[in-house]
Amino acid sequence: CRVVFHTIARQYFPEATERAVAAAIERLGATATEEAPFAWLSFENEPALGAVALRLTLWPGGDAQLLATGDAHVRSVHWQE
Fold it and tell me: How far is it, in rounded angstroms, from Cα 70 to Cα 77?
């Protein structure tokens, strides 16, 4: 399984770069197969949640899951059930 992982990076990207990175990851996901899956794991600030979110998206399928929330320095992590 190929995996792209990033943590606390998006906030430093210009908006156009953030969109380009997300589009590139989506394109890679579209090429995934059962024999060659692809995963996107991110730990990024989400103001709407008031926390940093650990998210996993798996392809094929593009199913996204919120795995946990916490603070940017990982002093606390709240795993989803």
Answer: 4
